Amino acid sequence: MDEIERRVRRASLGPLVRRAQGTADQEAIIGALTRLDERALGQALLKQVRYVLLNAGSDKEGTPWKDPAKALKSVLVAKALYFSRQISNQEYVFFAASPVETIHDSRWTDGKYDFELNDIKKRMKEIEEKYEIGPDEYLPLNAAPKEFVGLNKQYGDILDEKFTEVLREFGLDDLADLNKKNPREFARLRERGRRTVTHRDEHELAIRDVVIRYEHDARRAASVQAFSAAVTSLGAGVEGLLLLRCLRSRQKASRIANELPKRLRPRKLDDPTTWTFEALIETCLNAGWLPPIETSLAKYNSAGLAHVLRLMRNHVHPGRHARDRPWVETDEREYQDAEAIYVILLSALGKVSRAKFPISEKQETDETSTRPVDRSR
User: Fold this and answer.
1) Looking at the structure, do residues 193 and 47 belong to the same domain, yes or no?
2) Listed residues 144, 170, 200: the one ending a domain
3) Which residues have CB under 8 Å from 372's CB, separation 6+?
4) How far apart are CA 325 and CA 228, in angstroms?
5) How many CA atoms lie within 13 A of 366 on its CB side?
6) For the chain, how many structural domains are there in total?
7) Fewer CB within 10 Å, N side or C side of the chain?
8) How far apart are the first and last CA of the chain?
9) What are the tens digits of pLDDT across the range 248-293?
10) What gap in Å lies between CA 110 and CA 99, rounded to an integer?
């Protein structure tokens, strides 16, 4: 081994040697263990608390409760679950904010905010009467005079400010700050939290959302040259696209999957969400859902491309990477190839509709831009 080779070897192995020889800082270990201890609440507790939270918002007659003590109890439970890592940030926003919203709405309904709102409401009513707007109708903001639009904004701003105050009253300063600085993001997170409860079994919609998340994550990762993460996300995205196609024709997919070789045949034929990536590819191929893609230069095998991206994605497993590609780094060229395959398969399988997700990261429309604040309460 010559001197140059020894230097290269030392440079390559240096980080591994230092990490193996190094000892973790005692304070860091204690901090890590403390953080892990916070996750120690069991899933059984989570199920119980979810039941309590879902049933705490109404009394025996089914009417919204107005007791601040009950609201505070739900807020504290939501906080405890969030800090113990038993619920996500989106679920926390929903579970913590919902009881506060009920208190806020009841105060609005009971006239607690009338001192600030009545004058605005009266002036808006006068304008509506000029336009002959009936009691069950509303004046669209895009057809309303500037004065009405301005009054509607004042009305909404006061309600938003009151809601923020109630959030702080219940110790939710973090949510109050978010709602004040970025109300659109607050609404997005709350809506996602709501869907984890009310749309929990709508797998197809959830998978559509996951595929879109993977696509965004891949672009973000590539933008900072984290190409391994980007390729992994694209591979997962394609797996989601194949799964969606099988869910759209579940009976046909199950029948075809049952005819696959024993090695690939799914155990749960009636549940495509449990199938392997490879089984999804072969099912879609045999069903005719992965047609070849032709250009003026070549004809591309869609299923073959899916398998290429599957193998690229599988390098997320350290053992496989070490066996198949020891010391090889995923680079920009490979990411661009993976992205090209993703685009082709997206074209073959059908685009993922974003229309069913009203609260997205870049929401382009807002109902309040055409409809005034509901002042009927």
Assistant:
1) yes
2) 200
3) 124, 138, 139, 141, 144, 148, 152, 155
4) 13
5) 13
6) 2
7) N
8) 84
9) 999 999 999 999 999 999 999 999 999 999 999 999 999 999 988 8
10) 17
Backbone phi, psi, residue 299, to 5°: -120, 125
Calculate the CA dihedral of residues 298, 301, 307, 309 and round it to 10 degrees: 40
Model confidence at 37, in pLDDT bands (50, 70, 90)?
low
What per-residue confidence (pLDDT) applies to 51? 61
Residue 238 lies in domain: 203-349
**Best CA proximity match to 318, nearest among 210, 201, 226, 232:** 232
Beta bridge partners of 300: 293
Tokens 């549940």: give the residue: 271
The answer to pTM > 0.70 is yes
* Whole-angstrom distance, CA of residue 139 vs CA of residue 130: 11
Same domain, 114 and 144: yes
Indicate whether 304 belongs to any domain: yes
Which contacts of 283-291 are long-range, i.e. CB under 8 A and separated by 24 or more positions? 283/242, 283/246, 283/253, 283/256, 283/257, 284/242, 284/245, 284/246, 284/253, 284/349, 286/256, 286/259, 286/260, 287/249, 287/252, 287/253, 287/256, 289/245, 289/348, 289/349, 290/345, 290/348, 290/349, 291/348
Q: Which residues of 189-219 are buried (b: 16+ CB within 10 A; e: fewer)?
A: bbbbbbbbeeeeeebeeebbbbbbebbebbe
Pair (48, 194) in one structural domain? yes
Q: Which of 166, 200, 234 is the last residue of a domain?
A: 200
Residue 215 CB contacts under 8 Å (≥ 6 apart), including other chains:
233, 234, 237, 342
